[in-house]
Amino acid sequence: MKLIDLHVHSNISDGTLSPDKLALYAKHKGLSAIALTDHDTVAGIEACTHQGNLIDLMVIPGIEFSAEYGDQEIHILGYYIDSHHPLLLGQLSRLIESRKQRNMLMLEKLNKLGFPITAQDLVSDSSSQTVFTRAHFAAALYKKGYVKSRSEAFQKYLGKGKPCYVKRSHFTPEECIDTIHRVGGLAVLAHPYLYDLNNSQLYALLKKLTSDGLDGLETLYATHSKEEVASLLSLCITFRLFPTGGSDFHGDNKPGLDIGIGYGDLQIPYDVLLAMEKKLQL
Ligand code: AMP
Ligand code: ZN
Ligand code: FE
Ligand code: FE
To answer: In terms of DSSP bridges, do strands 242-246 and 216-221 run parallel, antiparallel, or are they unpaired?
Structure first.
């Protein structure tokens, strides 16, 4: 069976492999296609696609946006986007500027708490185009020995409401979906079970997003149980969404989670792409 992975991060955001190495690694792991879905940036797509073309790996241009939904942050993936579109590039430069200001404030907060971390400590594994996220802060705290794991860094310092958390500007879900559509893409709700929502709240979210034009739901995901996958497939039918799948691979920034297989038993069939392509042609 041909297998794929539609949720992958490179070191242009908070993964640790460069976009070209990511393509080589996906091919080495036997995948037929990946979607590069870095946070708030498309700067890795060209290099990843170029390497993919050389080794017969399909690379779908993607992105992962964060959006505000009540007091929650939800993630919306865009697929088949035109990564050169001026509208997209304009929106992204605003998000990246807001991240830069937020990162400076987070460094100040960490320093005040007694962790002498500098911007230089965030750059390991990165490139000149990297968009820095809280995952870079977690990696720096971990590498300096201030926490025992990256997740401890989020639990104690970086998570929402914790002492070093700083809010940044987000799109609304409608703005994310609209931007993705305007640049030719399909919009998909990422990892629906990572939010603090019960079943009826998830239903309400999907009802709202579908009315805003959502196209798909990330059904296969590294942490989803068989029961969760079944529930999501049934929601896909209810809301006429296509199911997608991805591991959310971040290289060494998510230890134990591998491309394609997630924590071991994830399998995303190539056929998932056919439904997406059909929708794209409508
Ligand atoms: P940001 O977009 O800067 O708020 O950072 C979000 C990124 O941090 C996510 O995409 C994950 O890669 C990572 N992250 C968020 N929460 C956690 C957590 N509890 N444990 C590990 N990584 C996390
Ligand atoms: Zn990430
Ligand atoms: Fe996400
Ligand atoms: Fe992700």
So the answer is: parallel
Domain assignments of the chain as residue spans, ordered by start = 3-84+184-281
Give the DSSP H/E element, type plus range, for residue 63. strand 58-69
Residue 133, ligand 1, Cβ within 6 A? yes
User: Residue 202 Cα, ligand 4 centroid: separation in angstroms?
Assistant: 19
Q: Is the CB of 9 under 6 A from ligand 1?
A: no
218: Cβ contacts below 8 Å, ≥ 6 apart: 6, 7, 77, 188, 189, 190, 191, 192, 243, 244, 245, 246
Pocket mutation for ligand 1, best pick of 134, 176, 250, 252 (most atoms within 8 Å of C-beta): 134
- Per the CB < 8 A criterion, the answer to whether 138 and 164 are in contact is no
To the question of pTM greater than 0.85 for the whole model, the response is yes
The SS3 of residue 41 is: coil
- Topology classification of domain 3-84+184-281: TIM Barrel (3.20.20)
User: Which ligand 1 atom minimizes the distance to the CA of 133?
Assistant: 3
Average pLDDT over residues 21-42: 98
Contacts of 80 (CB under 8 A, 6+ apart): 60, 61, 62, 184, 185, 186, 276, 280
pLDDT tier at 169 (50, 70, 90 boundaries)? confident
- Output the average pLDDT for the chain: 97
Average pLDDT over residues 200-211: 98
